[in-house]
Amino acid sequence: MANGRRFCFPFRQLESVYFITGTDTGVGKTVLTALLAGFLRARGVNAAALKPVCSGGRADARALRAAMDGALSLDEINPWHFRAPLAPLLAARHERKHLRLAPILSHLHTLKLRFDVLLVEGAGGLLSPLGENFDSGDLLAALGATPLIVAPNRLGAINHVLLTLDALPQNEAGTARVVLMAPPRPDAATRTNASLLAELVRGNRIFTLPWLADVSPAAALSKPAVRRTLGALLGLERERSR
């Protein structure tokens, strides 16, 4: 089991915890998390996709459960959910609840004993408050996770990505990977964002995916280009030649 260490699979070393955050809400975090879960599990990796905190509905958590073929219950994937479509901190307060960091960490550490890789999706952007005195950045750092930053590949993405990287602690910023998700209607920046970010962010850590919001995870994963991108994102060298 993972227990906070790297694991060596038939491809290459994977991190034990990836944290999927975004430059904003609605940028494609759940799409990417579901794709990664399906991709890894199809290759025999015992991976779990989780969204421990959500507000305004549980559609994202249900999508992750489907990507795992029901390997976990909805309440295991998403133990803390609140009705109001607000930042989780405020949504919890509307229900006279107070969400703390420690119980979330305890839940995730328990699941780390059952799975080789955890894919943990945050709620909203990196600095959106999840609970009392903590946000997604605090949860990411406490987990020692590798950050995957999702951004819409459109005008404005450069600034939003750089601000998100700047908000990360130095160690996490140095390992973070950026995924630019194409919008349904590309603009001029869609064609140039990746190359400019590659100049500004060292280490070949910029990746792009096409518009996939209207495509099922299975259909998306049938595309060789999507599989190659996911493999490269995770450092699985064999996928680059498939």
Short structural summary:
The chain has 242 residues and is α/β, with parallel strands linked by helices. Helices cover 41% and strands 19% of the residues. It has one domain (22-241): Rossmann fold (3-Layer(aba) Sandwich), CATH 3.40.50.
Structural overview:
- With 242 residues, this protein is of the alpha/beta class.
- It has a single domain (22-241), classed as P-loop containing nucleotide triphosphate hydrolases (Rossmann fold, 3-Layer(aba) Sandwich), CATH 3.40.50.
- Helices cover 41% and strands 19% of the residues.
- The protein is built from 11 helices and 12 strands.
- The strands form 4 sheets. A 6-stranded parallel β-sheet has the order 4-7-3-10-11-12, sandwiched between helices.
- β8 and β9 (134-135) form a beta hairpin.
- α1 runs parallel beside α2 (59-67).
- It is globular, with a radius of gyration of 17 Å.
- It starts with 6 loop residues before the first strand and ends in an 8-residue tail after the last helix.
